[in-house]
Structure formats: C-alpha cells, structure tokens
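<derive_structure_tokens>
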Amino acid sequence: MLQPTRTKFRKAHKGRIHGNASRCNKMNYGSFGLKALQPDRVISKQIEAARVALTRHMKRQGRVWTRIFPNIPVSKKPTEVRMGKGKGSPEFWACRVKPGRILFEVDGVSEQIAKEALYKASAKLPIKTKFIRRVS
C-alpha cells in the first residue's frame, strides 16, 4: 500500500474538505480518466483495490496513472478506551479528495474497455465518480 517515506509531523489534524479541486483537475497523461464528484478521504487500501481492479480488467494492456497519493496520517484510538489521555496513534494513510480531481488515467486501450475498467475501479472507492475522456 501507498504511504509517504517520511513526513514533517507524525499526526495530522482531521481538517475539512472545502471547495473544488484547483490542481489535478485536468487530464495530463491518458485518454480516459476517472473524476471525483464528491469530497471525501480516500484511504490507501481503497486506492490499491481500485488500481488492482483496473489493471486486472485491462488484462495488463495499456497504461494506468494514479493521480492521488495518501499523504495524510489518520489516527485512531483503540476500542474500549476512555476519552482523554491524548490522541491515538496513526493507523492508516489517506488522501483528501476534492470534487473535480482526476483520480486515475488510462491509455492504450479501447474506450469500452477503459469505461468498464474505470467503472470497476470506482466501485472500490467511497465517492461518486464520473468517466471522462480527453478533449483534444
């Protein structure tokens, strides 16, 4: 699973996801892509599951670009622990996704295969997404 090699701080604030994506909101690499329509945190396991579903359906043809990276540590207190006594330890890594962000890009396959593959990948993600094609 994806995670950064090192970070400046071990724990992060929860934060809120406001507004639309101002970066990574245009296609850069592939011909087809998956665009986020809702704000949410996408964890590294979900990104990996979507990537695996995508490459399996494409039968390792073409090329896949993952445009999101989980760089936010999410901490969690153990079960049945009383309130107080500080913040929990980091459990997993997440990426804050704003609406309009391109999540995955695909190239080197037909539109039908790309559409089906990206649909299967979107089923692994906790947000609503949209299939898009590059306008040239």
Q: What stands out?
A: The longest strand covers residues 89-97. The mean pLDDT is 95.
